Amino acid sequence: MIAEKYSIKELMAVSCAREIKNGERVFIGIGLPMMSALIAQNTHAKDSVFVYEGGGVGGLSRRVPWSIADNPTAENALMIHEMWRLFSDTQAGFIDRGVIGGAQIDKYGNLNTTVIFGKSGNYKNPKIRLPGSGGANDIGSSTGETTIIMQLEKGKFVEKIDYITTPGHLTGGVARQRTKLVGKGPSSLICQKGIFRFHPQTKEMYLDVLFPGSTVDEIKALIDWDIKIAENLKEAEPPLKIHIDIMKKYDPRGIMLGAKSNEEEDFDEFFETMRQAYKEVVLDF
Amino acid sequence: MRSRKDKQTSLREAVKTYLPNGSSISFGGLGARDPFAALYEIIKQGVKDLTLMTTSIMDIGNILIGAGCVSKVEGAYVWIGSVGSGLNYRRAVEQGVPVKVETEEYSNYSASLRFLAASMNIPFMATKSLIGSDIPKYNDKIKLVNDPFTNEPVALVSAASPDVVFIHVQKADTAGNGQIWGILMNDPTLARAAKKVVLTCEEIVSTREIRKLPNLTAIPSYCVDAVVKVPFCSHPMWTAGYYWCDLPFRRNFMLYNKTQEGFEKWLKEWVMDVKDWDTFLAKLGKDRLEKLVQMERDNYNIPAFVYEGGAKR
Lengths: 285, 313
Description:
The structure holds two protein chains of two kinds.
Chain A: H1 8-19, E1 25-28, H2 32-42, E2 49-51, E3 56-57, E4 79-80, H3 83-91, E5 97-101, E6 104-105, E7 111-112, E8 115-116, E9 128-129, H4 136-142, E10 145-149, H5 175-179, E11 186-191, E12 194-198, E13 205-210, H6 216-222, E14 228-235, H7 241-250, H8 267-280
Chain B: H1 11-18, E1 24-27, H2 36-44, E2 50-53, E3 56-57, H3 59-66, E4 70-75, E5 77-78, H4 87-95, E6 102-105, H5 108-119, E7 124-127, E8 142-146, E9 153-158, E10 164-172, E11 178-179, H6 187-193, E12 196-204, H7 207-212, E13 217-219, E14 226-229, H8 247-256, H9 260-272, H10 277-284, H11 286-299, H12 309-312
Parallel strand pairs in B: 1-2, 1-10, 2-4, 3-5, 4-6, 10-12, 12-14
Antiparallel strand pairs in B: 7-9, 8-9, 10-11, 11-13
Helix pairs in contact in B: 3-4, 5-6
């Protein structure tokens, strides 16, 4: 059953979940990908195994994780590694897909999550310091293929990024193949306005799916290079009701979907919401 | 060789003994088993000019930087996860507030391999990460070379041996055999890589108790220099099987943390003006702590590893 009402952020999370195929072993990065993992795990990808940088493999939890080593990534897990071991398994080719976020990207899917130089800045004295790679470089280097999820805003989809944190298809074509990186690089990108994919030969990003409320012209205006559009540009497949229910169930305070608190949060109220939410999750394993 | 005797001490003593100004430092855990009590003690003692060696770090790294204790980060990620931005890190790198922080960039895997190399007492490790990225371009301690056997490209990272690491575990005996349940991060490796290891634990148990489940012993006593019993050490994060996370505490921190003045106000209230850890826990309140314990108890227990074969057939 199709959801009657949904937000664009929810559509992003569901679209990202749909990139995950049943049976894949998936490395989940921080942020919205964690929501997508839960959606996939509880609907179409029940045979998939989700792994997190803190070392958890195949965890089953009563809420969405808030970070990559948060307890829900390890609760009821199949096993728990050290971080270096899990990344070694990734480098050895055991993980089929990675799902990561980004801040700045170019047409070949190279990602920056380290620094924005600004007009007169440089690496040592940047205008904006970002978190850094975390595991993104390793996931982007060595998982079979990667799905990127990020916001499309002016200045984020640029001709030349300030710093390549995570290699995409580098200069396009066979450039990545030449480096002998283990994984094949990005295959899809989900933003709030649609889904982009990468051309099989040139490796250049193109718009494949348009989300409701967005237009091609608007997207073109936000992207610094002349973005290519698929000949058969598709409409978004709407989320199902079950997808929305899963998000509400595992994230009852809407934290992953962007609810930022501007007032002191009351512990007892928070605690009670989470306690009720935990009761409603039946772990089926 | 480190002794097998009782290594129990206080956090105050451990920080004073092992962490002079200018040390390099690491922390165990991440989002679980983070040693917050140790962090607050370091800040109170005003330790300066630390080099933070890390893979990813969240609140602990940001608070330590905001308090002006750090002059360099060798690591992969400093932020507050999904809870918010790493504003202390941003202020320090972008504006030098309160202290300029220099950065030496890695990825999580390559930063992990530095600790692994140190734990094996070898000078470097090789990886297929980093290639094609700008990480080696701005970090001359990473070498891009061709493998002498196959001539394929690899990146080399040097061993990293922090002067001190603080690791929190569920159970330990007084000699420092530490047992962990839940996420490991690189903690077993970090303990072996570091020059000094300060182990905090929720409970001190007998060595007899440790022997019952030796597979859970992640930190061997021969790595450990000091053992400190600190219940609720990871608040506001979790310790699996013991207590749940206190997210409102972290979200409220974020409200203060928007400016350096706000951060310092928070620091005064929750760290500088709080006499010791017991006072901190009393300030949180018994009711709040009991709820966190109950929530974890209802959610997830550490099972005993018992043979059920015959009876269950």
